[in-house]
Amino acid sequence: ALVGMAFLFLACTAYSLYRFPLRTVVGLLVLGVAAAAGFWIVKDEQWVALLMVRGDSYRIELFEIMTGEWRRCGWILGCGVDFYTTKTLTGGVPIQHPHNIFVSLGLYTGAASLVMFLVVMAMTLWNALRNADAWGLYLACALLMLNFDGGQLVGNPDELWVLVLLPATMVLGRVVQTHRLMRPTEV
């Protein structure tokens, strides 16, 4: 969620710098001073120390293990949707899922489905950009966030449906609506 928030903040900041350069610079300076003061106040708190120790939450090791499992099963078809790894992270921590939507798609259903997903998402984002659809920014944030946390896209209803399928459907619905409105009415 923090990655998506950072991406959204950067996108909004870039737009603000373009539209209102002086106000944005002043706002960023005030925000930076407030953030530095806030961090200085809580720097010695136990929860901050635990957050810093936790670091990347084993994401790099997890990525290496899960791509290794994917390679072992076969790049093209993956390991199947019922695959479960017996490997563990450092310290014996069991792995529940890949924590990356792209590795997850590749691991469970192979490179073919991953490539199809990437093509559909790229086309959806392109149409959102072309039509100035705000759902595209929502989808871009979601895809960026799910690069660091995400399981199977197709399965039980969960947050991935709201993060990926809903905005993609909204963007593509707008594309269909635009094409229908531009087409002359048929009698």
TrEMBL record:
TM spans (from-to) = 24-42, 105-126, 132-148, 160-177
Keyword list (alphabetical) reads: Membrane, Transmembrane, Transmembrane helix
Q: Which domain of life is it from?
A: Bacteria
Q: What is this protein called?
A: Putative Membrane protein
